[in-house]
Sequence to fold (248 residues):
Amino acid sequence: MKQGGRFALAWRILTYDRGRTVLAVTGVFLAILLVFVQLGFFIAVPRGGMLLYDRTRFDLLIASSDYEYQVQPGAFPLSRLDQARGAPEVALAAPFYFGMAKWRSGADGKAPDVFVIGLDPNDRIFDSEDINRQLAVLDQADTVLVDSMTRPMFGPLTTGRVVEINGVEMKIGGNYVLGTGFMGLGVILVSGQNFVRLFTYRPAGPGQSGADPAETGRRSQGWRGFAAQAPRRRDPDFYASRARSSRD
Fold:
């Protein structure tokens, strides 16, 4: 059969039942589309899931045995960090607290969830100068740093603006650039003391507006979140730890 005849036969087969041809072409197109969707997830999921960890300085990380992902990190007693500090190879063991809180910023009544990261401002656990140069702000009472990628639904992220988070009035002390990843629609950084004020599992007592985070952690089952720090070969002045730990 000549080339022209082969083409005519193929064309006649395709046009004989146009509905079947359209269905077949649609199926092939959807299969190709799904391949690209899977490639997108393959690239985006590791980047989003590791966004926070890629910008923190550690070699080893102690995590709860109940850890699932950042929003559900489980908990472990802070005594685990005391054990890590006892190892001669460990120069620093720093707590890292995770929690979800309600952000209420106006008269519209909306209260979206915001992801809260608590840390000691004296421990420079982030590999980001944009964050490190503002850590001193977190020493102020009721002050937060807000990720600039936080969604517009949270309102303007203007420095000095006062918002209500978990029923506590907090002031925005500044913005930083990191990204929210899979942590939620909005992310804020707070000191350990302010983290205690935002969550209800601190010890209650007359006249207590806050409590020492280390003491609170020892008296409770453990903080939501995970943390730690030990030696980094590229940076001998900063150390962190990454080993899974079970709850006491």
Summary: Residues 202-248 have pLDDT under 50 and may be disordered. Residues 55-245 form one domain. The two ends are 80 Å apart (CA to CA). Residues 119 and 191 are 5 Å apart (CA to CA).
